[in-house]
Design brief:
Elements (H helix, E strand, L loop, with lengths): L8 E2 L15 H6 L13 H8 L4 E2 L5 E2 L44 E4 L2 E6 L6 E10 L18 E9 L10 E10 L11 E7 L8 E2 L10 E10 L2 E8 L4 E8 L2 E3 L2 E2 L7 E6 L17 E11 L7 E2 L6 E9 L4 E10 L4 E6 L6
Parallel strand pairs: 2-13, 4-19
Antiparallel strand pairs: 1-13, 3-10, 5-16, 5-19, 6-11, 6-17, 7-8, 7-16, 8-9, 9-10, 11-12, 12-13, 14-15, 17-18, 17-21, 19-20, 20-21
């Protein structure tokens, strides 16, 4: 894993108290890193307003490398699980993998992943996604009761985030993302540790180190809104608003360099809303997965032919679900541990378990 250099992220001026993005000039929005305000009549205005509406306090996010909590000294190491974002979206065949909550027809099939659950969308008509966003409530974690041979005293972990790209083996398949990381240590009291707001520009060749945003405190049960905007082909701006506390963090990120002559670009080939089972730092295996019970992404995305201000909303009826699976022992089997269910045209509900389609 490579280190994140300071020049790979950047910050904006923080607006003064009482600043209202709805009445600010375009020059002020640019100064503070805020997405240009769509016309009031635009389909995108309500989504923009949900993210930036006053009253809201802009905070100094103070990005720094994310350091996960240490494992308990009495922990029994979990068995290694494969972790591979690139191959996370293998297409299943017809049959019981299709949930009635995702109606039969174009775009209704479920994909399978060992570390992702949620939804993703692929733009059509030669367009690219330049913005993705979602609103969700941070889940409350507990130790799984249906896991065979659970690792004693281990640190459980899951994250919820929105992002652009990062799927399949296409050129520039990197992943700018923003969201919240959560941990559970059953040997402690209380067992659930403080969540951490984070952003990351993941890329296959070096992974990319997650950045914590300690300037924006979050807690289980908080309602958050997150968005990633591809301002240019090589810069993304991440927004994370804690609606519960009326605070928002804004962080810019630059595309990683593979070599001094080769910088990645945003392809805009996919957008996703994900609950993830992260990789254990410094290892190839995945964290033990906690029982997160339920959460729901009220999601939307915007598309444009070139990176820049969002131009039109993407029809989320074509979004596909991702079911997370786990290989378990005694008896040896593969079971789903997180399932997506469509709610209308712009929301995806996730439930822990979900071994039987609903």
């Amino acid at each position: 894993m490579v280190n994140v250099q300071p020049e790979q992220w950047f910050l904006f001026d923080i607006p003064p108290p009482g600043f209202d993005p709805e009445t600010a000039s375009g020059q002020e929005l640019e100064k503070y890193g805020i997405i240009p305000r769509p016309p009031d009549s635009s389909d995108l205005f309500d989504n923009w307003r949900r993210l930036f509406k006053a009253p809201v306090t802009f905070v100094d996010p103070r990005p720094e490398p994310l350091v996960p909590p240490p494992q308990s000294p009495n922990a029994v190491a979990p068995p290694a699980r494969p972790a591979n974002k690139v191959r996370a979206l293998s297409e299943p065949g017809p049959g019981p993998d299709v949930s009635p909550a995702l109606p039969a027809g174009a775009g209704s099939r479920l994909s399978h992943s060992s570390n992702w659950s949620g939804g993703y969308i692929v733009p059509t008509n030669n367009t690219m996604v330049v913005q993705v966003a979602a609103a969700w409530r941070l889940p409350t974690l507990s130790e799984p009761s249906d896991e065979s041979n659970p690792p004693i005293g281990s640190l459980y972990c899951c994250s919820t985030w929105v992002g652009l790209d990062g799927q399949r083996l296409y050129l520039n398949s990197s992943l700018p993302q923003v969201g919240v990381m959560q941990w559970l240590q059953p040997s402690l009291s209380p067992p659930e540790l403080a969540p951490t707001a984070f952003c990351q520009w993941w890329y296959r060749q070096g992974n990319g180190l997650p950045l914590s945003l300690p300037g924006l405190p979050v807690a289980a049960g908080d309602f958050v809104i997150a968005s990633v905007w591809a301002k240019t082909a090589k810069t993304a701006i991440c927004y994370l608003r804690n609606v519960t506390t009326s605070r928002i963090a804004v962080v810019g990120m630059k595309a990683p360099w593979l070599t001094p002559q080769d910088e990645l670009s945003i392809s805009g080939a996919t957008a996703e809303w994900i609950l993830e089972r992260p990789t254990i730092p410094g290892e190839t295996g995945l964290y033990p997965f906690p029982d997160y019970h339920m959460t729901e992404f009220a999601a939307w995305a915007a598309v444009a032919r070139d990176a820049g201000p969002p131009q039109a909303p993407l029809d989320l009826r074509t979004a596909r679900g991702i079911a997370m699976y786990d290989t378990q022992d005694n008896p040896a089997r593969t079971a789903f541990i997180s399932m997506p269910y469509r709610k209308g045209s712009a929301a995806i509900k996730l439930e822990y378990g979900g071994f039987e389609p609903k």
